[in-house]
Amino acid sequence: MDDEADREQIRAMLRYAGQATAWAAAAGPAWTADEKTVAAIAMVVGQIGESARRVTGESRARWTALPWQRMRGMRNVLYHTYGVVDVAILAATVTDDLPDLIDRLGAILTAP
After folding, report:
1. Is pLDDT at 97 greater than 90 in this prediction?
2. Are the C-beta atoms of 77 and 42 separated by less than 8 Å?
3. Among 85, 79, 87, residue whose Cα is nearest residue 33
């Protein structure tokens, strides 16, 4: 296991989650109607799953507070639906799931 490489992926996930929530907030409640904002947020949410995919099994087993399968599944949906994004699901992910994920990722990075 390369703990530092896994922690780098956790830092990347935190950065992407922060970008998604910040971009949605900056665009306002109607961000889901703006095609470019939706595309940008979908890309960084997908990158969360891509980074999750790169974390070793040992670290995933150690950091059980993270929804590994859901993150990778969201990546697969976003990257393999070929331009068809369910904006309602993406919006729910940004507003309901990412704030908690940000907290959990931060806790991992601050733990000894």
Report:
1. yes
2. no
3. 87
The predicted-structure confidence for 25-55, as pLDDT tens digits, reads as follows 999 999 999 999 999 999 999 999 999 999 9
pLDDT value, residue 17? 98
End-to-end CA gap in the chain? 17
Half-sphere exposure of 91 (CA within 13 A, CB side): 14
What are the φ and ψ backbone dihedral angles of 103, each rounded to 5 degrees? Answer: -60, -45
**Cα-based distances in Å from 101 to 21, 28, 60, 93, 95:** 11, 21, 14, 10, 11
Question: Taking a C-beta distance cutoff of 8 angstroms, is the pair 84, 31 a contact?
Answer: no
Contact 30, 65 (CB under 8 A): no
Integer Cα distance of 24 and 34 in angstroms = 10
Q: 33, 27 in Cβ contact below 8 A?
A: no
Q: 70-96: per-residue pLDDT in tens?
A: 999 898 888 877 667 889 999 999 999
pTM of the model: 0.91
